[in-house]
## 1
Amino acid sequence: MFFFKRKFRSQFRSTIRILLALVMLSSIIACDQPIIGPEEPARENVEVWWSEGYYPEETNAIRKFIDEWSEQSNVAVDVQFYSEKDLTQKAESVMNSDETLPDIIYGYTLDFSLVPTFAWNGKLVDTSDIIDPVQDLFMPEALESVNYRNDVEDRRSFYAVPIAQNTIYIHYWRSLLEEVGFSEEDIPENWEGFWEFWLEVQSALREEGQEVYALGLPMSTAATDTHYTIEQILQGYDIQIVDENGELTFNDSDLEKLTEILSQIKDFYENDYIPSNVTNWTDPDNNISFLSRETLMTPNPTLSIPGSQRQNPSTYKEEMGTIEWPNKVNGEPMEYITSIKQLILPEGAPQTEKAQDLVSYLIQPEHLAEFNEGSQGRFYPVMETILERPFWNDPEDPHVYKTHQYFERTRPSYTVFNPAYAEVEARGVWGNALSRMVEEDVSPRDSAEKAREEIEQIFEEWE
């Protein structure tokens, strides 16, 4: 009996040990397995990413109309404002990830490189349902610029919504001209005479003891202004790099013209007609240089320079001027390269249908007009009806009123025809060409040939 009890106890203890070991093993295995719980509910509010306006009136206008739509539709909207640099970085990152996408994105530089690429790769919602009901209100050029090719679906369609547009203007100090006996009427309209005029005025001002540079031409890779200034100069020489079929057409004749352009700019730089630090400029720096009266004339892709002086009527209306570019080298009037500010809806975002309704509300002419005017005229409207408003028709405004002349003759950016061209700006091809000449003493011819090689390489990568 005693032996039986001992044997029973021993077996009982062994069984307990085995059971405890099994429990511990189960716990370890369970810890290695993912915890499966209820799926996270889809976001119900509309999420908007918007570039912070240069002026409070811009931001206030868009916030006002988003709030109105939210109240009327009983749909919550989470609108997040970002600096333009942060917005483009976030947009590029989220569109190439598995993260939840915002329903709407609007930025001032998205059209430079991101939108054409997103559309090409099939990552954007077709916006025809938004545009078609109001298509007749938009300027044809604005619609042309948001008609992108979707390579995934092998078709073209609207993959963005035009909100505003701009081109590259020329601003100058009327007051500095007057100090040495010149006026706007003295500025030549022919290409060569136009550029020589500013050099002559610089010399006159230097004789009066003023350390002023004739030209505020950006020459850095960091400034998008460099790309658009050179693009407009290329237009002046009738250099066509991409045709309407998206084919690269940069030929030997164009190479000769580009060499001439680079040689002229290098001459300006080496003869002290351009500030020496232009190779380090970022986008605000030509504004800063001009507003500090370091430069006599500067190109700029928006009206932000005069817009910043609206609170000082004397400076805005009397001392500062905006003029057209000179006629092209062949004597014909200049065509201006437009940049369309665009709103996009990422494909796969949770609330596309609601987002489409919100965008339709935002682009009603009276709403878009208030947003455009909130930019202080920095951007030009994309609807003819908006141009009928008094803001755009004051002949006493020497800047906004002048913009009408620019938009009489325009062409879209090459990115509309082929998104590969977006890489020309993204890689700073023109900034590299300029920097090579002045920092590495590369000849204009060699620098032009290198730029051509870089462009050809980009297009080969996209084939």
Note: The longest helix spans residues 2-32.
## 2
Amino acid sequence: MDLSNSRVLVLGLGITGLSTVKALHKLDAQIIVSDSKKEEDLREFFQKIDDIYVEKYLVTEDIPLEDIDLIIKSPGIPPSNPIIHEAKKRNIEVITDIELAYRISPTDNIIAITGTNGKTTTTALVGEIFKKAKYKTYLAGNLGVGILADMINAEKEDVFVIEASSFQLEDTVHFKPKVSLITNITPDHLDWHRSLDNYVEAKKKVFKNQDDNDYTVLNYEDRTLRQIANEIDSNIIWFSANQVLDRGVYVEEDNIIIKDEMIYVKVMPCKDLKILGRHNLENALASVGIAYAMGVDLTYIREALKEFLGVEHRIEYVKEIGGISFYNDSKGTNPDSTIKAIEALNGPIILIAGGYDKGTEFHELIKSFNGKVKELILLGETKEKIKETALELNFNNIHLVENMKEAVNLSYKLGEENDNVLLSPACASWDMYKSFEERGKDFKNSVYNIEVE
């Protein structure tokens, strides 16, 4: 894609914005940047691009669009943004960074992983498999790493494993991965997408441009995915942790199996996985499906599966204090994710939950407690909403707190030997933190500095 001397507006100067500006500079584009923050709040950003000339429009929506050729927006900026609205009226193309990355990519080895839950763990595991197989492998997308800075320097043989959020997929046009994966679909980000149908349509864009030379890996246990399978033109690889499939990746007699018309292979025993929970078994099966589609040798698949310890902030064991185990699941940003974390742990649970309100309901979360969650500690914007739902469903052991330190200290006081304290908020972090990573680190620091009487 030739962008030399094109005037490109970068909307939003976070992680993807930084990567985008650096790539556009190498593509000889004329770069205009815009953000809702003041320049003094973006000092670190501008220090990182101090050798690149950019036009700045900060803390304003009054941007002259007459001579703008292309807009690359931060994924989190909603379609309702006035600048986006005006640009589309003027027929100015608006895309996200993964779309531009595809257009400039020298490699066909692009793997895109989306879904409501399981994206991060699966992306990390797939990355480990390809690294074992000696591919130069880049992890990018919603992992907090901008893709463009790496793509601009990539080689034909390189592999890109992209965690693709619905926000990023929403504004793709030609994006066409070699292998796509949808882990599952449950209601999420409805405040942004405005409806579940819109959310599903954004997720479907991961396979929309694929053809019969490509592969799509799908969770057979997800009803929505079974319903949309007839819209897919690529080769479907199903996976299931619950039933034996005629073709696909599944579990039989506690072994991970790959089966198609040509092969039947026992990959490894499920007990050899080090990651906890049935949801992580599904993540492993999905990863096997991707690696199989890409022709990775089984030796490397087995090695990576056996060695993989999981990712930070996803049911991450932190510490044991006085017989009480603390787990950081800050990546649990919706109820379904938190339900899976509850299912993964053995023993009584003191759950710390609450955060930014994405318009989600919490009835299924409370119903999932099943006597396993003994105390519920709530903080953040949704604490009253979750409390009301819990009381409605006759769960009464509820405690409201103001911050993470208070939550952790209270959990320790309430806990007994063999209890688990689980931070799994079922909500995004944006009411109190910049990211779920920052929230998880605050939890861990609070655990390390717990007030022991």
Note: DSSP finds 17 helices and 20 strands in the chain.
